[in-house]
Design a protein that fits this description.
By secondary structure, the chain is α+β, with helices and mostly antiparallel strands. 26% of the residues lie in helices and 36% in strands.
């Protein structure tokens, strides 16, 4: 019998964890799992950071997280910082769920499929990232990549795909065309410098809920990140070219820079804020990112 510690964040994303809780526990139980539910209620001190104390009192075979990508981010940070090596189950209830889609070949799983992946599926070891003292599952980004990127209306995404995300991102740049960040960077195979509106270090097949041609061939356990840097546009024509490059995945000029690396250092002229899996992170002038190869094992659906 598989002993499951089931962390449930009722406030995440679409807020349907509570209404589906009985069904989820039932499916897991019918498939030979013994489930212990632990609600995530930060205002009451019920947080994933309490798990190490729980594990001192009881043994579990898997830690399952029901919430959004941000909830999973907290769980993975807790595990890495406490040297916990149990496999992870993930039932996404967020609004974008990039991570789950990447792990399941771009598919959005049904509730039953998600539960069965935990109960009888196989575990897949994937790469995570460490930015200074914090970990991320699939993306660390700076610049114009703010929460508005995740708020692109779904009807725009359905009609325009990745272009909707890019257009919405650029149209909401603080200060318009004057927004830019001077960055120096060092990575496995070289160095670079420039003024950018956006930068991302990712290990994913999907960004902001939609698939990008820039990362569609990513391998999630190869020890490498995909780095994407978008240069600051000087005029409307530059903006149009950037959108076209992002839509096509073509990076043959200096508007969109893409490369792979296992390690990268960024040097900014001022303190830089990041988003890690959609969660805000207040960084400094220097950011060092390492790939933690196959550091976490996640249960995925049988293909």
């Amino acid at each position: 019998m598989k002993r499951v510690l089931f962390l449930v964040n009722a406030a995440s994303g679409m807020k349907n964890a509570v209404s589906n809780l009985f069904n989820m526990v039932s499916i897991l139980t019918k498939n030979d799992c013994l489930v212990t539910v632990y609600p995530i209620v930060p205002s009451d001190g019920l947080v994933s950071e309490n798990v190490p104390e729980i594990l001192k009192k009881r043994d579990f075979d898997v830690i399952t997280c029901c919430g959004g990508d941000g909830t999973l981010n907290h769980v993975v940070n807790m595990m890495m910082k406490n040297d916990i090596h149990l496999p992870v189950g993930y039932i996404p209830t967020g609004s974008t769920n990039d991570f789950s889609k990447s792990m399941n070949q771009g598919r959005s799983l049904s509730l039953e499929e998600q539960c069965l992946a935990i109960a009888v599926g196989k575990s897949f070891a994937y790469d995570i990232g460490r930015l200074n003292d914090m970990y991320f599952n699939y993306v660390a980004a700076f610049g114009a990549f703010t929460k508005v990127s995740y708020d692109t209306p779904q009807k725009w995404k359905n009609a325009l795909g990745y272009g909707a995300y890019v257009l919405n991102m650029i149209s909401n740049i603080p200060g318009g065309l004057t927004y830019r960040k001077h960055v120096r960077y060092e990575y496995d195979n070289g160095i670079g410098e420039g003024e950018f509106i956006f930068g991302a270090v990712s290990n994913t097949l999907s960004v902001a809920g939609i698939q990008s041609p820039l990362v569609r061939n990513s391998v999630l356990n190869d020890g490498k990140f995909e780095v994407i840097l978008i240069t600051a546009p000087k005029n409307i024509n530059d903006m149009n070219q950037i959108v076209q490059k992002m839509l096509s995945g073509n990076t043959d000029d200096m508007h969109v820079i893409k490369f792979e690396t296992s390690h990268i250092k960024f040097h900014f002229d001022e303190d830089m804020n990041w988003t890690l899996d959609g969660e805000e992170y207040c960084g400094g002038k220097d950011a060092e990112i390492d790939n933690c190869n196959e550091a976490i094992r996640l249960y995925v659906a049988e293909s």
